[in-house]
Amino acid sequence: MNKIDELRQEIENIFDNVDNMKKLNELKVEYLGKKGKITELNSVIKTLPNDEKKSFGMKVNEVKVLFNSKYEEKRNIFEEEEVNKRLESEKIDVTLPSTKIKRGSKHPMSLTIERIEDLFVSMGYDVVSGPELESDEYCFERLNLPKGHPARDMQDSFYITNDYLLRTQTSSMQARYMVESGGNKPIRIIVPGKTYRREDDATHAPQFSQIEGLVIDKKENNISLADLKGTLEIFVKEMLGDNLKLRFRPSYFPFTEPSYEVDVTCFKCHGKGCNLCSQTGWIEVFAAGMVHPNVLRMNGYDPDVWGGFAFGPGWDRITMFRYGIPDIRLMYQNDVRFLEQFDRKDVD
Question: Which residues pair with 127 in a beta bridge?
Answer without folding.
Answer: 190
